[in-house]
Amino acid sequence: MNFARPAGLNNTEQMPRVEALMVRLSGDGDAAGAMVRGHLATGGKRLRARLALAALDVLGVGRERGIGWAAACELLHNATLVHDDLQDGDRTRRGHPTVWAQHGEAQAVNVGDLLLMLPFLALEHAETSPAVRWLLARALAEHAAAVARGQVEELQLAGANQVGWVGYRRAVAGKTSALFELPVEGAALLAGRSESEAHDLAEAFCHLGVLFQLQDDVLDLYGDKGRERPGSDLREGKISALVVEHLALHPGDSGWLRQLLAAPRDATPDHEVDAAITRFREGGALAAVLRRIEQEAEAALGCSGLPQEPGLRDLAAELVEVTLAPIAHLYSAGPNNHG
What pTM, to 2 d.p., does this model score? Predict the structure, then answer.
């Protein structure tokens, strides 16, 4: 694939203010706030906040006006991470213990719930009119609801008799794409675009959310996600894009793969995960997912609203590059040659 040259996502000049606002909103002097700050301190790319600021920039609004909006998007994303780690049973994230592993399951629910509320408080710091602030609040609620619905869809996939691309993509469009559309939709509203225009401009980033999840599924087995060991998705019984494509190509492997996914997380043998890594690569599933990634990138950059906003199209192209950087070696070496 040909990737665009990076432009605005690496501009971090306003990120210290975003970080400071997130910490301030978490509260001071109570246990819940300390847990939130502990989670935020584990780091991360802050991609949703950076996307919000970069979108404001290319739409002609100063980044300094987007501090509250960037913090809102990032706080919502982190709420979903806390709940996701609990549901998936992941004990580490970014090389640190997850909230539930450190404080228990019940407290992880509480911390995630608090993080779900903080984005609405962050909107008080958005430099805009009360009418636009209401539109931003509604966008937050709508996309947060989409994430929850997508998570339900993903968990349903694990117990489905048949899994396919349509069901997988529907789940991903909710739980992952919503948090890529949201920063851009809000930035467009802050830039004075109408609701319909903001929605159309964010459409491209739905495809990029799917692309991000596909990359994440691949990275779990063929890269480094900062987990204890490769194969977290398989160990937690997740129906990843690689599972979907392998079953489509080799339905006779259904019994073996279902048994692997059904095994308790701590009882999943490393050699079975290694076998899956080999089968997905040699059986064509990895190559199929890499083609899906290319298709989502092309669909995103071909969205109808982007030609009228060349800066936003450049930002979408940059996001493709940033997202795929961790698995770029698979494109350069070829999926069947990667060990």
Answer: 0.90
